[in-house]
Structure formats: C-alpha cells, structure tokens
Write a structure and sequence with these properties.
alpha/beta; Rossmann fold; 2 domains; six-stranded mixed sheet; four-stranded antiparallel sheet; 28% helix
Length: 289
C-alpha cells in the first residue's frame, strides 16, 4: 500500500526527512509516533503529494505527487489542524462527496453517529464551528466514503467521550482491507487502536514494532471510583468523561471505551492521592458484564 525509499526533504538548511525507508501493507493499522519535529507531518504531506522531495514515494503503486487526483480519490485524510474554510457546511459536504464519488448523505450519517447534527449548521461557515464540531465533520468526510487508505493526525483530540466511542466503533466497522496510518506524539493515546508502531526521530525510522491487540476497538469498561473526600476538580474531570455522581460527590460511575484505557489512567493519575477505590470491569455492548 505504501512504499517509501530514501526519502529526503529539506526546509532551507534543515533536513526534516533523512533517507527514510518505510513499507506499510494493505490492512495494517499503524501508529506513527515521535516528538514534535521528528518528521511525522512532513511524511504525511509527502504521502498526500503536497511536497516535492528526493527519493521514492508510492501509494497504491502510484506516485501521489505525479498522480495526485487519482491517488487522493481513495485516500481519507483527517488533519490535526482544521483548514480555515469559509464554505458553508452543506456546500462543503457536497463538494467533498463529489471529489470521491460518494454521497453527502453518507457523510451526514457518520456525523450523526458522532453526535453532530448537520441540519442546524448546514448554512454555517465551517470556520465558525467549534473545535469539536470541525473535528467531527472532518472525520465524517474521511469515513463517509470508500477509502483504501485512512491517514489521521490526532483524529480524536477534540472529541467528547461519546464521540470517541462512536469513532472507535466506526473504525472497527471499516473494511478490514482499509489501511490506517494514525499520527500522534503520544503512543499511549493510540496504542490500542493499532497493530504496528513506527517511531520517527531525526527524519528516520528508529522503531518498527508490532503491538498485541489486547483491547477491542469497541470494548467497554465500567469504572467505579470512590474519593477520599469531595473535590470539585476531580468531579469536573470525571463529568467531562461522562461519569455521574451517585449523589454524595464521593462515588462516581461511568464507561470508558477500551482504547481510551491508558489515556483515562493518565488523566486520573493527577488525582491519585484523592482516589480511595477504583474498579474496572469489561462489559458487553448491551451493558452487561
């Protein structure tokens, strides 16, 4: 699916990609990780045909630079930073669907699954949407089409817990032949989504490893937490994750989607001294243990 050999890219006197070699097969779900400046975004831009660079870049057997329209026809892309589009949402969906021979209704359906109703914002400019609305719409455009390759840059960063759960469900339901490349600077946020981790440093691959798929993309974990004493900051954090208090502001209960387990623990670690007890149990999709 992706073949990169000897890829070099300079910006003025700074070399961002330094003889990078990389192969990704059809159906692989890959986390592309590394510190800021490691070359992740530059590599993605090369895969999308946006940059001229030395070396070989093939996506689906074709050069994305020389045959960009043909290649992007079957590539879904979710950028980290939304573009400053002033086009109304309705027009944007029709335009995006026309480029990939899809239907706006498919994209609207994905948006609805993520909790974004299109009708109330149909005439609103994309640039005027909230960060979460923009992210949901960009995901809807990428997933509401037939993609052989999905390239996603911090795709769930601005999503609320319910939308994240729906997003993971949509990824799980995608065609198993669809290749996924998920860029992130934090491995803990994407490890449970992928079956391979590639780390960049200094414009080269410094780690290429397989990951055990221990958490289903759609697994649900029921979490119960009891605090040592009431604390508003903890209550606010748990509420933002969709937890509810039993009434005394000491006990909380909620659901955590499986791939979010490590991210949830990282958030909770800030308040470890205030947590008296914590239990996690996996439940079925109907809510039963």
């Amino acid at each position: 699916m992706i073949r990169v050999h000897g890829l070099e890219k300079n910006f003025r006197k700074s070399r961002v990609l330094n003889g990078l070699d990389l192969e990704i097969e059809e159906g692989e779900r890959v986390a592309l990780v590394g510190a800021n400046g490691a070359g992740k975004t530059t590599l993605i831009r090369c895969l999308l045909g946006e940059y001229v660079a030395r070396g070989t870049v093939l996506v689906g057997g074709a050069s994305p630079r020389e045959r960009r329209a043909e290649t992007l026809h079957w590539v879904g892309f979710v950028p980290q930073l939304p573009p400053p589009l002033r086009m109304p949402v309705g027009e944007l969906l029709h335009f995006a669907a026309s480029l990939c021979e899809s239907e706006p209704a498919r994209m609207e359906s994905v948006a609805a699954d993520l909790g974004l109703a299109i009708d109330p914002i149909r005439r609103q400019a994309f640039a005027k949407l909230s960060g979460g609305q923009k992210q949901k719409l960009l995901i809807a455009v990428a997933l509401g089409r037939d993609s052989r390759l999905l390239i996603m840059d911090e795709p769930a960063a601005n999503l609320d817990p319910d939308a994240r759960r729906a997003f993971f469900q949509l990824l799980a339901e995608s065609d198993q032949r669809t290749t996924m490349l998920i860029s992130s600077h934090r491995l803990d946020e994407v490890a449970s989504l992928v079956n391979r981790v590639i780390e960049l440093d200094g414009g080269r691959v410094v780690l290429d490893d397989r990951v055990a798929e221990t958490d289903s993309l759609t697994s649900l974990l029921r979490c119960r937490i009891r605090l040592v004493h009431p604390e508003k900051s903890v209550a606010d954090t748990l509420t933002s994750w969709g937890f509810r208090s039993t009434g005394d502001m000491l006990s909380f209960e909620g659901m955590v989607v499986g791939p979010d387990r490590l991210r949830f623990f990282g958030t909770l670690a800030r308040y470890s001294g205030l947590v008296a007890t914590l239990t996690l149990e996996e439940v079925s999709q109907d809510g039963n243990c």
